[in-house]
Write a structure and sequence with these properties.
Helix content: 25-40%
Number of domains: 3
Shape: elongated
Strand content: 15-25%
Number of strands: 12
Strand order of the largest sheet: 1-2-12
Oligomer: single chain
Amino acid sequence: MYSYTSLKTEGKAPKEQANFLLKDQNMKGLPLGVCLDSCRWGSITTVMYEMSVSDMVFFIKKWMQQNKDNLENLISEDSYELPYLNHNLCPSDKSHKGRVFDLAGRERCAYKTEKRLRPNYVYYYDSLDEASKTTRRKYYEEEPSCSIPDDAFDKYGNLDPFYKEDYENYLTEFKKFENEEKTFVVEDVCYAILSDRRSILPLETIIKRLNLAPTSRTVYCSSTYSYHGPCKRLNELNEGNRENYEYLGICPGHEQEVENIIFHFDGYALASYVKSWWKQVPSGKAPPFEPNKR
């Protein structure tokens, strides 16, 4: 029988205990459930770890490294069904029709849409699409803006002569916009995941789906009171967001992992999910992280 005292938990807060277990060989010979349960906070209905999702994956990998010679006996006695996605209707739009399988075995929505835009006024940005779990490029059209202030016109609608040239240039540009043909064609396939029961789930994905808390938040390079400010992390922006920043001069925001994860079950149950993940591939080589993450 293993106990918290065998893990030297006396006087340690959960985060301190997690750091202690990661050092040296402090998890060697101990069941994963015992280790996980010794470094979490608990309430009547939930438990919380002071870790991000990637931190938790790293913790479990560290346990596996320390116990590589006896994994099957120590990982867990039980195994639980993994949190697969399984939608009868498209989660993006229930009216979508058509299905297709990707190379990883996931069933996706094949609904296709088409829109036409004026080519000289097309802009785009890249964003993570939650339904398809992919980064999607979104195209949109932006008409010429008028930089003339409202008070440049008097109460009769007459324009201050100082702004006449600027206003005429705006009207000329806007006329070009209205007369330009929409020849830029954008085809978009929904690609939302309908089911991934036929695919191998990374441990990171499993933990994200079991987690009751947000896994990330958007932070801006500005004051606490406003996000309308310059970006100080330009090297982190992708091509689309960089172009938008050069045009607007406003930080588009950066995704940052949340340092807490919450489950409605204890560390022993989490170890059972880890065993199910580990058993997906006969050699025990199921991927720990999502593609292109590590």
